[in-house]
Model the fold of this input.
Amino acid sequence: MKKTIILLRYVSTKICLLAFLCWMGTLLQPIAAQTNVLVLTERGGQHEGFVSAALDWLEDFGKEHDFRFVELNQTEKIDSAYLSRFRVFLQLDYPPYNWTDTAKKAFEQAIFNGTIGWVGFHHATLLGDFDGFPLWRWFSDYMGGIRFQNYIAETASGRLEVEQPHHPVMRGVSRSFVLPHEEWYTFDRNPRGRVKVLAHVDESSYQPASDVRMGDHPAVWTNERMKARNVYFLMGHHADLLKSKDFTTMLGNALLWASGPGKWFPRFRMLVHYNKEVEKAHRDFALDAIRFLQDMTIGDGMVVDTTSNMADFNEERLRTYHLVVSLNDHPGHTEAQRRAFQAYMEHGGAWLGFHAAGYNDAGTGWPWYVDFLGGAVFHRNNWPPLPAKLTIDDPTHPVTKGMPSAFISPENEWYQWSPSPRLRKNVKVLVSLSPENYPLGFKDTVTDGDFPVVWTNTDYNMLYLNMGHGRRIFTDATQNYLFYNAIRWLMRKQFH
Ligand code: ZN
Done:
């Protein structure tokens, strides 16, 4: 009797454990194994042959690799929540226009942050003014800063030459092969340099020959400046493409590669703006700063774009950057530019401002910006530019952590503020000019008063640094360390 009970207990424990494992298995298996792919297509029309042949091929591929394909024919459903259900966005046959604003924004963010992989064909570079829709600038940049120019209307076969045989998309693909009946789009400029070209088409191989040419003609490429794994194929016009083993190998490779995790690098993208029309010492600083920041991109850890075109201060462009850096000017001249910057900051953007970016007086006429700076209004400065002893106000803050409690900062024109931003509750001053410097200056002398140099308005992800005058700013390792900390802190969310 006793033995039976023990045996029963043993058996029931086993059964429970098995049942539990099975239950866990059913719970985990579909989530872990199946890859959901969103397929965006237009149906009907002259590309129907390609689309239906590709969908047939995908169905077989899906069975083999446990990929599930969900087809959409318009973008109304697409928002961030919807995209989060998919691992790959397959733009099989759909142009970069006639998208809802919500879909555009969600797509940009997913590619930007690498939460989805992307494989695009043919129509994805119909970039320009089509059917009454204006150019989607973000998408044009994504594809290498191009605009659609022309195509071979009667189609031609062409020979693809693989340039990156070791790229995962080209695994098992012939080094050189002919693809049939293609339109071979041309663009207003070559995307090479802004994107990594995996293959090009040899225009001299066109059958029949055609005058619609680009010279160097990229045909497969990836934008490595995005966190998303992404690849674009110029081809996608005719059903016969699916008869090419090399084409289907590339397609399968692309889907498998794009379904992998988002890339670690670049960690973030910054837009650095500067004004070329300001005083020489502020232009000199800007050029040094750009070199300093670009040196940090070694290894592609981050992307540094520079501009002196204030038209770049529009919402569509700003939201493609994690950080805006103002080297010697305000982040907005016109009302529209200023509103765009304010919206960018209010939606979680980050800003690093140097020296003249913070200068403001009665003529500035931008109350929001003065408030953003912590209410600091320019009061006076020393002259000539001089080194000064700076003291750390808060050694526990990530920006000043590890710094000596005081250091001599290289020659700068130091701005004193009235009112001082320190008076604001939402301002945290991190570095100040030591009163030991007084009197500071020969021509213009600062003799007294509070003198914050580095601070943050804690309502925003922002930091202002008063350094930024002349050619000596980046000559001190201690100060460079502070600059590095500042960027690292502003971009803290991008470091997991
Ligand atoms: Zn200055």
Summary: Residues 1-8 have pLDDT under 50 and may be disordered. The pocket of zinc ion is lined by residues 281-282, 355-356, 413, 469 (CB under 6 Å).
